[in-house]
Amino acid sequence: MKKIVVFALICIFVQTLSAGTVYIVNGGDETLSKYDTETGTVTSNILQLGLYANQIFIKDDIGYVVNSGDHNIQVIDLINETTLGTINCPIGSNPYWMTIFPDGGKGFVTGYLTNSVYVFNPETYEITDTIEVGDEPEGLCLDGNKLYVVNTKYLWTGPFENGTISIIDTEDDSVIDSVVVGINPQFCEVDAYGRLHVVCTGNYADIPGKVYIINTNDYSDYEILEIGGSPTKIGIHENGTVYLADGMGQGYMAYDSQTLNIIHPSNDLFASGGCFVRFDPNGNIYLGDALDWVNNGVVYIYSADESLLNTITVGVIPQDAGFYNFDVAVDDDFGEEDLFSLSNYPNPFSASTTISFSICHRGTENTEIKIYNVKGQLVKKLKIINYKLKINDVIWNGKDVNGVRVSSGIYLYQVEIDGKKSKMKKAVLIK
Q: What is the spatial distance between Cα 247 and Cα 199, in angstroms, rounded to a whole number?
């Protein structure tokens, strides 16, 4: 793994606008804009994109842009800002949303018009397999070795039928289950509690939006949040707030992922727009607004506490944003007088690793180690029962809070004592 993944993990708790590059996909004029957060400058049209560019996915030094109208994924060298080539999907497939394994070995993209998910090799640019899913798949999300695919089953002429979620085991790329949800589901994300949040948009008229919150250990166990409006894209912040983009371009809804209490209802939206919601590695919120859908749009940048930090003008219909090469900004509550040490061995590890730490002053029963995944989601808490002033050891067996073995990749951990947090350290799990 290269340094950009580490940056994305380490910075999740800091709400300042640290140095980095933000790439914005403009679907209306098919351009890529660049925002330098250090200088505050925006460079328009640094690269020409394909027809109906929908999404940007950044992995290490490479950007992948899904061009739905050209039926391909445009591969971009972010160092030189040039196109390296394309991953060509079948003509007429209308690829929509993609993801890549943390180790970079395999990727997936939905084919909206072919009711399929295409498996591809990010290095050779080849489609290696086709997985048949439900009708009109749009969004997808990866969680461990499970891929969740959102099948809209949406017909503009009606009648409207409930959509489904196809659950794919990525070890053999087979569909292992299907879950029926609401009308016109489009996007999904998994929260820190292992629950799948599926956004069902409704029909933009008399069928309002809903969110299905599904237990990923028992897919028949779910709750329905009557959010209203016409929500589409979803983003779950590391502080637990879930933001939903309004499909009519009016603003953003929000609710608490744990309590499901609505923070910004559909009749009192946050900000404006509704093109996308993304979070940079430091937890700042990026919201896209197409304005009149004809001229250049804007991106609003908010801190995690929803204070407006900046507004930047980009291209026509900003559809998505990706974050690259951000500086490391670490929130460390311990001073030099604490003489703090933290490490794990072995590292990398396959079965288990021992996390060790020491600190000068005495801890309390509120001493624990927290482990996070690549999305900034809490994976596991390890309680320190018999705290010592010298070396304290605790073993992590590579399993999450539900006892499920996590996937290979980079994880970050930190010690928290009475609310004070240490710097984060990296642990690499390999299988």
A: 11
pLDDT of 46-55, one tens digit each? 999 999 999 9
Cα 277 to Cα 245: distance, rounded to the nearest angstrom: 7
Helix H or strand E segment including 109: strand 107-111
C-alpha 143/C-alpha 274 separation (Å) is 25
Tokens representing 376 are 């900034």
Partners of 396 in beta bridges: 353
Phi then psi dihedrals of residue 67, to 5 deg: -105, 95
pTM: 0.76
Return the structure tokens found at 125: 């640019």
Question: What pairs with residue 190 in β-bridges?
Answer: 196
How many residues are listed for the chain in this entry?
Answer: 431
- Domains of the chain, with CATH numbers? 3-324 (2.130.10.10), 336-429 (2.60.40.4070)
Please tell me the distance from the alpha carbon of residue 336 to that of residue 343, in angstroms, as a whole number: 17
- Cα separation, 424 vs 415, whole angstroms: 8
Q: Hey, CA dihedral for 315, 320, 325, 328, is it positive or negative? A: positive
Q: In sequence order, what are the residues at sequence separation of 6 or more whose Cβ sits closer than 8 angstroms to the Cβ of residue 154?
A: 136, 160, 163, 183, 184
Q: What's the one-letter identity of residue 100?
A: I
